[in-house]
UniProtKB/TrEMBL annotation:
Keywords for the protein's UniProt record, in alphabetical order: Cytoplasm, Methyltransferase, S-adenosyl-L-methionine, Transferase, tRNA processing
Any one Gene Ontology BP term: tRNA N1-guanine methylation
GO CC list: cytoplasm
Database matches in PANTHER family: TRNA (GUANINE(37)-N1)-METHYLTRANSFERASE (PTHR23245:SF36), TRNA METHYLTRANSFERASE (PTHR23245)
UniProt protein name: tRNA methyltransferase
PROSITE patterns: SAM_MT_TRM5_TYW2 (PS51684)
Short name of any one Pfam family annotated for the protein: TYW2_N_2
Entry superkingdom: Archaea
Keyword Cytoplasm tagged: yes
């Protein structure tokens, strides 16, 4: 099976293999091969530019025709089905209503070499700080970990602050729109996944990251250090109030508080420099994906004496039956 791979000198292969495993980039369904002096490590996808910096030593990206693994352990072999779960750092999350959670957890730990803990969510994300409670099903008793995403690392405590890996692609899409010299205000920054990834793109980008949850901001500050970025200002506070200080400065305003973002639209408008882009996230019903939200954004623009041009509307992911997580992007003139 032809696949993109990392080619590295055999004697330098092990640290590279470990790094790829941690980044969830190594394709475990294929056999690692030797080709002369080199080791070819199969990848699940093309690495992001930031991820390439995380791979130690010298290597090259190339292609190779791989053999499948002979005796690859699969969840189906243990369970007869593939349960829904996600992995954050070395923690796997399953839903609390999964049948036979202990059996599922045991199977995940056997198949996923990097998982040390399996937690079940005790309910949905809730409250002002958008946090969840968990119970441990298997492994170490912990809710904190370090998660890697597109070459950045994040300290996270899943019970203390919001984080989801499901927005990784979305974050990289916003990243592509930010240019050197611009200022970004991340109004609901959490532990910093948008802010830090954007800041890492260039030291000439200024990022102002606000969150009301003191624990999230503590993690955000640790993550700024962990990723060695010096162009993120971490601010603990209410986004409506903090926006006053940065009037007219932002070229991009990120509003990732999907249930309540509309309550912060006047502040977002105040933040906007001419031609700034607001990236507005909402949870909307499938029969009114963008219309009502666009009306609210338009009304806020009117109150601020501004005009908007819609640059993009898209579905980010499904959220609940008949409800979708959407992103609306408008240019504020
Ligand atoms: C859905 S989370 C998004 C976090 C982050 N952007 C991410 O993608 O992981 C929303 C965040 O908004 C924060 N928040 C809620 N109300 C706020 C407010 N009035 N001002 C600033 N932050 C707020 C919460 O603490 C939470 O961290």
């Amino acid at each position: 099976m032809k696949r993109i791979c990392i080619r590295v000198l055999r004697k330098k292969g092990e640290p590279v293999r470990r790094a790829l495993l941690e980044m969830d980039l190594l394709d475990n369904s294929l056999r690692i091969c030797t080709d002369g002096e080199s080791l070819c490590l199969p990848l699940v996808r093309e690495p992001h530019e930031n991820e390439l910096w995380e791979i130690p030593g010298e290597f090259e990206l190339s292609g190779y025709d791989f053999e499948p693994q002979k005796e690859q352990l699969k969840l189906e072999d243990f369970l007869g089905r593939v349960p829904h779960f996600e992995v954050i750092g070395d923690i796997a999350l399953i839903e609390d209503d999964v049948p036979e959670p202990e059996k599922v957890a045991e199977a995940i730990m056997k198949v996923k070499n990097n998982v040390r803990t399996v937690l079940a969510a005790l309910g949905p994300v809730e409250g002002e700080f958008r946090t969840r409670r968990f119970r441990k099903i298997a492994g170490e008793d912990k809710t904190s970990t370090i998660h890697r995403e597109y070459g950045c690392r994040y300290y996270i405590d899943l019970e203390k602050a919001y984080f989801t890996p499901r927005l990784a692609t979305e974050r990289s899409r916003i990243l592509a729109q930010v240019r050197e010299g611009q200022t970004v205000v991340d109004m609901f920054a959490g532990v910093g996944p948008y802010s830090i990834m954007i800041a890492k793109k260039s030291p000439d980008i200024r990022v102002i990251a606000v969150d009301k949850n003191p624990d999230a901001v503590e993690f955000l500050r640790r993550n700024i250090e962990l990723n060695s970025v010096s162009n993120v200002e971490a601010i603990e506070g209410d986004a409506n109030r903090e926006a006053e200080r940065f009037s007219g400065l932002a070229d991009h305003v990120i509003m990732n508080l999907p249930h309540n973002a509309h309550e912060f639209l006047d502040a977002a408008m105040r933040l906007c420099a001419p031609e700034a882009i607001i990236h507005y996230y909402g949870i909307t019903p499938e029969d009114d994906l963008f219309g009502s939200s666009l009306e609210l954004i338009g009304q806020a623009a009117g109150r601020a004496g501004r005009i908007i041009e819609v640059s993009d509307t898209r579905i980010v992911r499904s959220y609940a039956p008949h409800q979708l997580n959407v992103c609306i992007e408008v240019k504020v003139i």
